[in-house]
Every structure is written in C-alpha cells, then in structure tokens.
Amino acid sequence: MRNIIRNYSSLLTLLGGIIAGSILGLIFGQRVEVIKPIGDIFLNLLFTAVIPLVFFAISSAIANIDPGQKLGKVISVMTFVFLGTVLVSAFLTIVAVWIFPLKAVAPGTFVPDENAHPAGFGEQIVKLLTTGEFFELLSRKNMLPFIIFSALTGFAALKAGESGKAFRNFLHSGNEVMKSLLDIIMVLGPVGLGAYFAYQVGTLGPQLFGTYASSMAVYYGFGLFYFIVLFSVYAFLAGGFAGVKIYWKNNLIPTFTALGSCSSIATIPANLTAAQRMGIPAHIGNVVVPLGGTLHKDGSSISSIIKIGVVFAMFGRPLTGVDTVLLALGVTVIVSIVEGGIPNGGYIGELLVMSVYGFPIEALPAVMVIGTLVDPLATILNATGDTVAAMMVTRVMKGRNWLKDRADLQDPAAMPAGQA
C-alpha cells in the first residue's frame, strides 16, 4: 500500500488540485476567473515542451533498435498483432459509446468557428500528413506531420549505421532530458490544472461533473470487461484453454506491478519474467515485450475513443459516419504509439486529438482530466496486454502446439529452482 501511494503521489496531488479547484469554482463562481492565468501558464509550458518531447521519444525509439537482432518475421507478426488488438479495442469502445452515450460539458457553450470551411478530401490528406515549411512542423497544430517526420528521422539514424552512432546517442540523451523536463513541468500540474478547472467549474457550472461520471462509468466498465474477457479470448486464440490458464497464472505480478508503478515501461521486467514462465521463446518475448511497452497500448486506445467521444459531445457532433470512425481509429493507433509508456505521456495523445479534429484549446483540460482519472486501469491494460500479444506472436511463429513444446514450464515441480 505504501508503494502504491508513493508511486501514485503525482496522480493523487493532481487529483487534489482538481478537487480543490472544483470547490473554489463552486464557491466563488465566475469570480475565479482571476486565477485563470495560472492555468494558462501551466498549459503554455506543456505546449512548448511537447514538440521536442515527441521528436526525441519517437526518433530515439526507432533509431536505437538493435540492428543485430534477427527481427524479420517476428517484427511483421508483432506489428499485425499490435495493430489488430488496438483497433479491436478502439472499435469496441466506439460501439460502447454508441450504446452508452457520453454526456457533454455544458452543451452549446463551445461553438465551432462558423468561418471555417472544410477542405476537399485530397487537401485534407495533404494537410493531415505534411506541411509546406519545416518551421510549420514545430506547431502543435501539425502534430501528425511532426510525428511522421520524427519517425523518418529515427529510421534514417538507424540506417546510417556506425556513422549515425553519435546522433543516435544524442537522440537517446535528448529523450531522457525531455522526460525529465516533463516531470518538472508536471510539478506545477496540481496548481495549474486546478486553477483551470476552477475556472471551468465557476463559469460552466457543476454540470461538468456529469461528463466525468459518465466517462468514468463507460471507461472502467468496458475496460474491466476488456481486461477479463478480451484478454482471455486472445490467450485462447494463442494457446486454447491451456493458454488462458497459463496467461492468468502468470499475469498477476505484472498486473500489480503496473498498478504500483503507473508505468508500462516499469512493468517490462515483470512481463519478461512472465513471458518466460508462459513458455514464450526468448527471441520472441525479448523483442515483443520491450517494444510493446512503447508501441502497444490497448488501455490508451480505449481512453482515446472516450476522450474523442466527450469532445464530440461538447461540440454537439455525432461520433458516427464512416469517415469519422475511420479517422478516430487512425488517431487512436497514433496515440497508442505516441504515449511512450511513461506517466503523463497521455497528454501528448490528447493534444493530437485536439490537433487532428481542429477543436479549440478550451476542450483540452476536459480530456486531460479524463486521462488522469483513467490512468490506473489504462496502465494495467497497456502493460499486461504485451504478454498476451507475445503469446499470439508465438502462436503464429511456432504453431498451435507451442505450449506442448515447453511443457516443463507448465509444471511447477519441473521448473528450475527459483522459478516455480
């Protein structure tokens, strides 16, 4: 319990700031507008840090893949599994939102720009994927082109081989520095976000809480269903009833590690041990699990759709239509990659949602709050989904009898000392 409180101290203080701000907003009403600049300062610091953070996180992850590993078919199958589970979780969440509609924050308060005219399909694709000038990449309004540029930079650094070693080290160092910078900025989170939330509550009223109650009910209800039922289905597809048994037998420690650390990255050691005990070959588990910590996030996929649904409700737009659903699925895939497996990484994805759909910045604090509230279960889903994904990769690589090939790991009495 003490470890959980320590690891979630930043989450608890952030929630404390939000609660305190809510109380101030309810008590003083619109008079709390005087403290809104404090929230604006915090958000501006976050916005200026997010661009270099995304660049170093993505380019470093790609550039520092060990070229000596025989990735080959493992990478191909892993990519298919990662994309498949993320898309399944996203689409099922959309269905859940259709069945249980999310409440809007003060419907009609946020009005889209009437002077905005939608561009043609081709022009939308060009603007979605690219910019005409390099400096335009540095705007938070062009997050997706910037992500693509960052990924290409990472691949170029990897392709450069020995000549690119110094640059790859620079990317790795820059990634660590930017993560530390984000931690420093988030120290101001309880005050900054609390001030902004006080402003929202004071000006929009207590109907704000209806949005978060609705969102939390859908997220935690569907998230627990996905965790128990869908992960069991994935394990069954990987190894039949024996796969379900071996997965849940070895998934408890990673689950509690994810809950206690609030980080997919911190859960990697526990996942690697669990993968070994599940009978997953080392050359598969040692590739899928670490990359999954950064690139594979079913929990973030679910929360991304919930956030999109809430913002659509805020602006009175229906989350329906083939183009809207396809774009939501595409954004969700990008968000699951961008978030990086670190605490507070979800704020990057939230900014991407605002950027792609063209919503004004007033919508960002609402989705940030939702991201904070769903973080515990999202981390569990993100982290523990990596081992079941490794099981499915093993099923494709080794065939349906892969568990029988490692039967010694299924019998605790036959396992090596210290592993039973």
TrEMBL record:
> Quick check: keyword Magnesium in the entry?
no
Kindly list the residue ranges recorded as spanning the membrane: 12-29, 41-62, 74-100, 143-160, 181-199, 219-244
SUPFAM superfamilies, per this entry?
A: Proton glutamate symport protein (SSF118215)
Question: Which InterPro entries does this one have?
Answer: Na-dicarboxylate_symporter, Na:dicarbo_symporter_sf
Q: Where in the cell is it found?
A: Cell membrane
> What is one term from the GO cellular component aspect held by the record?
plasma membrane
- Where does it primarily localize? membrane
UniProt keyword list: Cell membrane, Membrane, Transmembrane, Transmembrane helix, Transport
Q: Name one GO molecular function term.
A: symporter activity
> Among the record's GO biological process terms, what is one?
dicarboxylic acid transport
Q: How does it sit in the membrane?
A: Multi-pass membrane protein
Q: What protein does this entry describe?
A: Dicarboxylate/amino acid:cation symporter
| Species assigned in the record | Chitinophaga pinensis
